[in-house]
Amino acid sequence: MTYQEQLDTATTTTEISGRIIEESITSIDDIYGSRDFPLALTTIAQIAVANHIEEFDINNLNEDLNSIDLSKPIELFDANNHHTFNAYNYIIKDIGINGYVIIATHTKAPLIKEIKTGVTLPESFLKTFYLSEGEFYQFDGSSYQTLNNIKVTIDDFNILIEERAKALSNLTMNLLNSIELDTISMLNNMAYLTNLTDDEYTVQKSYNGQDKNAYGYGGISNISNYLKDRYGGTVSYTSGKTLSMQNFTMNAFNSKNHCALTAITRVLMYYRAEGYTKIDKSRADVFKKVLAKAKKHGYTEKMVHLQLKLTI
Q1: Fewer CB in 10 Å around end: N or C, the chain?
Q2: Which domain holds residue 185?
Q3: What are the start-end ranges of the E strands in the chain?
Q4: Residues 279, 285, 286, 292: is their CA dihedral positive or negative?
Q5: What is the C-alpha separation between 282 and 246, in angstroms, rounded?
């Protein structure tokens, strides 16, 4: 099954007579998703770092990723002794920033679990357990050690791990399926990014038919000239339907590089006017929700080409 098929068929809830039913897991295997990712974990880690670091100006994806050096993977195990994440120490060669990033190894875990700057993880321990954000227990052969250098005996750790395993058994399928939807969506976004050509990715180029200082897909004032210059041709309009929408721009939200999200907000405001009262009255509030949802799926001002899966 392809990732798009997984995305199309995955469900997050069961609804009976209007009530959402929480479904409990039936076995430990239910906690873990597919490990067949469309990208190497190292590529995912590099994209996550490039997207996170403010000082890192993304222009050319391949060039940018090549400037990020990663350590060997540090395998991280959960309370069930399953290999659920990989940690990588990173350094950005051109600007000297370092840190670590934690990437899921299966689809029922958050794809990008942690990104830290200015701190790295020890790489010399025999085995590392990762029980929650920032909570590492590293085995040196005789005892476990936290990042704060606190020693934990094997017996004490076994008691702790048993309690945490019980907590994992209380996870619901609803939550796990929701996490899996987000993870698969982000994987698809990243796979899309890696397939872009340099011209598609570098949006700073201007074309005929655009306003002054506009570039990429923005500020198009003459569609025919734009299509001819960018794609070598034009299109013919044969039939269609016109919808009456508000004509606000992203300037209404004091934002930049959010033209796609502004367009989505326009569509939602149209449906609000058509009687969908669950949509907020305020376009500013709608835009905030659209932006928050987009960021959840990997969108940033720097990665303006991300395909968004928005469900509001």
Answers
A1: N
A2: 3-194
A3: 14-16, 19-21, 68-70, 74-77, 83-92, 97-104, 112-117, 127-132, 135-139, 144-145, 151-152
A4: negative
A5: 12
Q: Pick the closest to residue 297 from 173, 181, 133, 172 (CA basis).
A: 181
Number of domains in the chain: 3
State CA 97 to chain mean position distance: 22
Torsion 196-198-203-207 (CA) sign: negative
Collapse the DSSP code of 289 into the 3-class scheme (helix H, G, I; strand E, B; otherwise coil) and give the result.
Answer: helix
Does 88 share its domain with 164? yes
At 258, list the tokens: 């959010």
Amino acid letter for position 129: F
HSE (CB half, 13 Å, CA atoms) of 42? 10
Over residues 35-87, the pLDDT tens digits come to: 999 899 999 999 888 877 765 555 556 667 888 999 999 999 999 999 999 99
Separation between Cα atoms, residue 118 and residue 99, nearest integer Å: 5
Structure tokens at 121: 């993880």
The beta strands (E) that lie in 95-253 are given as 97-104, 112-117, 127-132, 135-139, 144-145, 151-152
Of 257 and 123, the one with more pLDDT: 123
Q: In which element (H, E) is residue 8 found? A: helix 3-9
Are 210 and 154 in a shared domain?
Answer: no
Structural domain ending residue among the three candidates 218, 239, 260: 239
Confidence of residue 217 (pLDDT cuts 50, 70, 90): low
